[in-house]
Fold these 3 entries.
Entry 1:
Amino acid sequence: MRRLLITGAAGQLGRVMRKRLAPLADTIRLADLARLDPPERDEECMSCDLSDAAAVHEMVAGCDGIVHLGGVSVERPFDQILGGNIVGLYNLYEAARAHGQPRIVFASSNHTIGYYPQTERLGPDGPYRPDGLYGVSKCFGEALARLYFDKFGQETALVRIGSCTPEPTNYRMLSTWFSHDDFASMIEAIFRVSTLGCPVIWGSSANDAGWWDNSHLGWLGWKPKDNAEAHRTHIEALTPTPDPSDPTTRFQGGDFVNNPIFKE
Ligand code: NAI
Ligand code: 15L
């Protein structure tokens, strides 16, 4: 690839992927609303608010692939989610349509399905059960991506990320953890495969206690190598045993199910 765009590059995952994905392209274009560390060799930095259509067109022009990490990443009042995650997604897909349809990795979330019980195992095709407005915004993003695939052939990987952190640190993450290594190798596979389409992909490591079934992904040539189980003893020693009647333990979305509809 000549130029790979990473949006949300100043964020938690953006800062990790900035380093990990460098070998994928001659130039990595980093974009965010927040301040970015100065560009290093083979990098270029752009300030861009996803809700600004003209700025998004400029950001996407000349890119051969996009890792879309930008936007509001937790539950927030609707007016905050609207700009980055709803208007921003529309701007991104319109810009991609105008600039050669670069393949997109969309950082969707497990909060699209957060109201499924933790006792249920999920494949890629079940109905949405979002656990808040943030989850609804990711459902919108997935639906928009699918529209642009069906109408225009725009390819997107809809990666429903679980908990992408250096290590799993609580009981829920024994099921939801997605290691940085596994996310980086998944992104490499998504850009390597000749035909992608618009699949739902669970962003999860090979956790023994996992809830999500990625067995439909044989064609991707990707296998996660980490497993949260290796951290169980540590987690059990440090955190209290979860109460099974607590909603945050009953539902896959964890703490997010307790969020109100925030107003400010
Ligand atoms: P983060 O909140 O650390 O980073 C998001 C970045 O997007 C921030 O740097 C922020 O400045 C930028 N941003 C927000 N609104 C913007 C706007 N209107 N225009 C331009 N940039 C804007 O989030 P994190 O953890 O790095 O997550 C990255 C992506 O992955 C997010 O889309 C999040 O929803 C998704 N995700 C992350 C998970 C995780 O475990 N870290 C789990 C599930 C999904
Ligand atoms: C997400 O969607 C969030 O972006 C992240 O901060 C975590 O809360 C993650 O889900 C999770 O469910 O652990």
Note: The longest strand covers residues 103-109.
Entry 2:
Amino acid sequence: MIWDKTETFTRKEIKQIQLNRLKTTLRRVYAKVPFYKTLFDKLNLSPNITSLDDLKKFPFTTKEDLRDNYPFKLLAVDMKDVVRLHASSGTTGKPVVVGYTKKDIETWADLMARIIIQAGVTREDIAQIAFSYGLFTGGFGLHYGLEKVGATVTPTSSGNTIKQLMLMKDFGTTVLVSTPSYALHMAEVAKKEGIDIKKDLKVRLGLFGGEPCSELLREEIEKEWGMKATVNYGLTEVMGPGVAGECGIGKGMHISEDHFLVEVIDPDTGEVLPDGCEGELVITTLTKEAFPVIRYRTRDIVTLSMAPCKCGRKTARISAIKGRTDDMIIIRGVNVFPSQIEAVLKEIPEASPHYQLVVSQKSHQNSLEVQVEPSSNFIANEYSINELKTKIQKHLKSVLSIKTEVTILKPETIKRTEGKSKRIFFKEVKHQ
Ligand code: DLL
């Protein structure tokens, strides 16, 4: 089912809507947000554009710009029209604060409904939302969309896993909403509690997001839960969840292009790349009232495809997020993304999706240690552990062209999380 007919519009029709909305957005930010007025004036840019191509002339907005204007300086409406504030999950310093008008919240619900419907949710479903409800946008965003499509919502929020499982059983939950890593953690806890999730629970579908979901993680979740796992994407700065999501038929995540204009750029030069090239996703909001952003650099690495999908939608699709530009680690001159490590681990049946990366700086050079737990059916002894270590090391070398340390950890050594998982750790090593 398709929620909104604009999802099936031709490229020409989509572009026309984008152009009209972009013209309005640029004029609005110029008139209402001093940050953009100053920036455009400095660069001698008129907000009155004539084609979508003109957007390329405009500067990017970065996370630093958002932080510098903390908390409310980028709002394009009066505070009395702001009905909600959310903030991004920055671990250090001030967070990025975003505002929503009443209409923004309605748009959010509608865009979430598109994603929820395309993932396969119906009015018959009982959906448990195990995202936190708070400054994080995950809980509220999914909540609005699920209610809008008429599903029954259980807003359990994150944490208290045993209770989550009890409610799932008692309520007959059919849809799980969480980060993919939390879904896997729930499956582990269920096993310990003697719950057979495939038999005792009715969960048939997962809506996962907020962090990368590698194919290894997806397969493991689907195997453990006996469910279909779908992924959706978004970020606080442009709305929260609801930017893009999978339809379960074609590859990649459909973007609501009538609300978000996307570009893919070379993160080093800022040059706009042709479709199909890997680069950083840049988003311009086209309908946000309270907090519009122009050419926002997401730091997420994707490829973009304009090919129509078998599901009937003609909107552009982004690939799974390959990584973030700020998650990229450089090991002896080679760029390494966690997703590359995950792709290697997926090829090795004895490895589990539970891994972390430890980067140490030795003799002015970074070295990388991949710590990984074995899969649940792995029989550990000195010989098998060494063999697995060598196997992973060899695979990594062939993909990354660098030598890595590999450590096979005991099961359940890596900290499980109820929200987003942290994969990369830095270790200071004194220079010898
Ligand atoms: O994570 C919004 C969200 C909540 C999306 C729930 C989907 C579901 P932030 O906390 O601002 O917002 O974090 C945004 O998380 O730039 C990506 O790096 C990452 N991210 C979000 N969804 C995905 C995904 C929410 N499906 C940042 N795959 C983004 C990979 C994702 N990374």
Note: Residues 88-89, 131, 136-138, 209-213, 231-236, 240-241, 298, 300, 321, 324 surround DLL (CB under 6 Å).
Entry 3:
Amino acid sequence: MASAFDEESFAQLLDAVDRFVRHRLMPLEKQVEEAGEVPSDVIDEMKKMGLFGLGIPQEFGGYELTLFQEVQVQMAFSYTSPAFRLVFWPNVGIGSKGIVLAGTPAQKEKYLPGLASGELRASFCLTEPDAGSDAASLRTTAVRDGDDWVINGSKRFITNASRAHVFTVMARTDSSKRGAAGISAIIVERGTPGLSVGKPENKMGQKGSPICDVVFEDVRVPVSNIIGGLDAEGNGFRMAMQVLDAGRISVAASGLGMARRLIDEAARYALQRKQFGQPIAKFQLIQAMLADSETEYLAGHALVMQAAAALEAGQEATAQAASAKYFCSESVSRIADRALQIFGGAGYIAEYPVERLYRDARALRIYEGTSQVLQLVIARAMLKRYE
Ligand code: COS
């Protein structure tokens, strides 16, 4: 899909994002960490910049960026705390992609303009208390009753659930089938009787970005709420996996943005911190840590760009997306660890951002596919080539 957004306009957008991140958001990082929320005036500014609609087609009010462009914005935004980008990224990525890729014209018309403007916020509900990595074993059911689905079950660790208006819910519409078959993706609106959202969890990092349980008790929605319409019944798992292919490239790009910040912080600190009579940057063991981090950053960058280009070109890119996310999420953890080591004692206290970035980076190896699930996905695709 070619972008309707030309190169010059995209360069201007990227420049505006960069300035917003460095001048408006970075000074607020500590406040967001402590308050656990992003100020509402910042969210209003994000709406004005059109950030909620980055990936949504222009005919519905979005920018219609290509995935290749999207990952560049993701990298720029990930230079600051994840809480900021997680305000709008679910509308760009997993919360809206299902409707963009597979929605009926009526579903697109109804939801995409609001998702693009930020008036509506989206959440993607796949994970359950007993279905994490084994997503196809999910137990939430949607039973047909006349013209409605009646949904029962619960979802766990759902990003942005407490502020979402539109939920994409993966539920079993055919209980006679096990595994992936029989799962459909259903749109449920906030306020539907029987839908409740739990309290935001107290997380290790990424503070200010809520994740909550979502519970469905006899929630009724029209049968037409299946993404893609009734003909798409049973396609929910495949659609979720397709959405996750793009999502994983995006998480990899967020790892790169965080890595860039960590390397910049560590290199600047190494140049000004003196020990044994000189800046510690002069010591070769410090230089080795910086060089390893820079090399991993560059390797990850190449992987992300390659995976984004492949998916954009319509190629089978599941394993490439998994490789990009696997490498970038693991390497940003190593980069965070080295940055903390370079800061020494100062890296272990909350005064400097490295302590917070270290905790923020840890989640990347878990969400949208653990490193171990991604290893399986990569190996499966490889072995198919050899069989
Ligand atoms: N794109 C399109 N279709 C896909 C796909 C993809 N990337 N991956 C799998 N599918 C399809 C398969 O082709 C298969 O379809 P058919 O039944 O028509 O052949 C179906 O989906 C089931 O796939 P598979 O047999 O591979 O399912 P498994 O149960 O073995 O699960 C893993 C595969 C483990 C890879 C999957 O469950 C997974 O990714 N788990 C992690 C979930 C996750 O990332 N959760 C994070 C929370 S979301 S924020």
Note: Residues 124, 126-127, 133, 135-136, 179-181, 237-238, 241-242, 244-245, 318, 367-369, 373, 377 surround coenzyme a persulfide (CB under 6 Å).
